[in-house]
Amino acid sequence: MKSTARKNVLSKWLKTKAILKDPKVRRVVPETHRMNEKSLREMLSRYSMVYIKPEAGTYGKGVMRVEQDNGSYWYQKEEKKRAFDSFSSMYRSIVRNKRKRPYLVQKGIHLLKYKGRRFDIRVMVQRNRKLAWEMTGMIGRVAHPRKIVTNYHSGGKPTDVRTLLKAFASGEKLSSIEKNLSKTGYDAAIALSRTYPGLNMVGADIGLDNHLRPWIIELNTNPDPYIFRHLADKRIARKVLSYARALRRIPPAKSKPKR
Ligand SMILES: Nc1ncnc2c1ncn2[C@@H]1O[C@H](COP(=O)(O)OP(=O)(O)OP(=O)(O)O)[C@@H](O)[C@H]1O
Ligand SMILES: [Mg+2]
């Protein structure tokens, strides 16, 4: 299929390269490279903590968090964290335990925590009936306490953004963080659709660091619209789902959701 017609782009590498073309968006993309022994070693010495992930993964499968401190090395996959006294021995173990397909290495973001669990924010951006991009909803995803990924399919818990951010900000500051998240997702969707104009839904996974600065962790082009049903405010799911239906991304109302 021609890139202009594509509704779904699987490669995280192609999606990252596409949004790096936009100078405004570029500033919020954590440094990312194709992973090999050399790039992992370099990225780890630069950032001390990185994530590695399959170039075309889903549900957080195969994602690992890799750390170094003072000559000690660790990596965690699912609930298991392993320690090593050299980079080479860790790398050998990673190769054995990773999925047998190309990986990316990305600067790790120290995500904010809620009750001791990491969280990130899914910002949904969809084309409306006039085909203009619109931010339609956002929802927090709180990681399982012993896991390094926030995905729903890995035990992540969908949670209202305000609940998660209350400990960090209130009033105008809280609103401005929310606006910033929304704008970051919106700008990223526009940037991605310049390379892939056929896209009509983008679920932006955005992490906040200790300075409440947003980082684009990943852009999903086939995001689950049903996750918004977890919000108490039912208007949001209604909007997200009605846009998805109008674009024929999900079946008409009343039929059962697939997932
Ligand atoms: N650079 C990073 N810094 C901090 N956390 C990260 C980073 N990369 C990934 N994560 C965590 O791991 C989760 C899964 O990673 P990612 O979204 O890139 O892959 P995926 O979920 O497998 O893909 P998909 O969303 O298409 O199913 C993220 O939602 C986030 O919680
Ligand atoms: Mg993801």
Automatic annotation (TrEMBL):
GO cellular component: cytoplasm
Any one of the GO BP annotations: SOS response
InterPro entries assigned to the protein according to its UniProt record, in alphabetical order: YheC/D
Domain of life: Bacteria
One GO molecular-function entry: ribosomal S6-glutamic acid ligase activity
Signal peptide coordinates: none
Coiled-coil residues: none
SUPFAM superfamilies to which the protein is assigned, alphabetical: Glutathione synthetase ATP-binding domain-like
Name of the protein this chain belongs to: YheC/YheD family protein
